Amino acid sequence: MNTSFTVILLGPPGSGKSTQADFLVREMEAIHVDIGLALRKTAEMNTPLGARVSDIMNRRKELVPDDIVEEVLSGALASVPPNRLVIIDGAPRCSTQIGIIDGILKTFERVVNLAVYVALSEEESVRRISRRWMCPQCNRPFIAGVDFQEGTAQCPSCHIPLSRRKDDTEEGVRKRFQVFASNTLPVVEHYRKAGTLLEVDGTKDPIALFGDIREHVVLH
Ligand code: AMP
Fold it and tell me: Band of the pLDDT at 151, cuts 50, 70, 90?
């Protein structure tokens, strides 16, 4: 495969961005750049930066400052070979990050080729997140009662117990949904105007949804 196609994934909590990124990794050999995951790792570090990021993400459930996101994204892209399909999951999250991300991509001779917006209502977002568990090793999400039954909560690949994210409380998801509505929907509109937006229905079956997205990913 020879491509530097770059996809941005946007959507509220629980919309299935990570699941779609996983499909793209497995079926199209994409590199998944997960900003939220990188920030959660930073938040776990026993450093002043870790404590600051943890306070913003886990206590205030707000957006981390742009300069930290910029550093995380530049670091992640630095190790990506130029000819790989890249999926940026979770950024830009606000209008000020649009130019920052364009600038970073430019240094790697990339542009945003496609922005995918996975739309989901607040109630569905809360319903999904309140039942979401994660594998602490491979970070795959699992929905209780759908992907596993209570009492057997182990990752089938890593064989370790699933755990909950610190910000996956009802109060946490409602706050993050509001942050999405006020900060990230203007980003969605930016890509719509630019003609690079694909809006998909997050309530659709994940495999059918992947079919919709795959059609728009152009590989050379
Ligand atoms: P996510 O894993 O995408 O749900 O993100 C979890 C948290 O990480 C968010 O609630 C924010 O606090 C932070 N975060 C993720 N991406 C960004 C971003 N692009 N800009 C600022 N904060 C972010």
Answer: low
Which range among 43-47, 164-168, 215-219 has the greatest average pLDDT? 43-47
Q: Is 187 in the pocket of ligand 1 (CB under 6 A)?
A: no
81: left (phi over 0), alpha (psi -120 to 50) or beta: beta
Contact 97/192 with Cβ under 8 angstroms? no
Give yes or no for residue 115 CB within 6 A of ligand 1: no
Query: What does pTM read for this prediction?
Result: 0.91
Q: What is the pLDDT of residues 165-196, one digit of tens each?
A: 888 889 999 999 999 999 999 999 999 999 99
Task: Give the sheet arrangement for strand 114-119, strand by strand.
Answer: 31-34, 86-89, 6-10, 114-119, 197-201
Q: Which of 64, 167, 178, 182 to mutate to test the pocket of ligand 1 (most atoms within 8 A of CB)?
A: 64
Pocket of ligand 1 contains residue 13 by CB under 6 Å: yes
Atom 3 of ligand 1, residue of closest alpha carbon: 36
Q: Check if the beta carbon of residue 115 is closer than 8 Å to that of residue 188.
A: yes
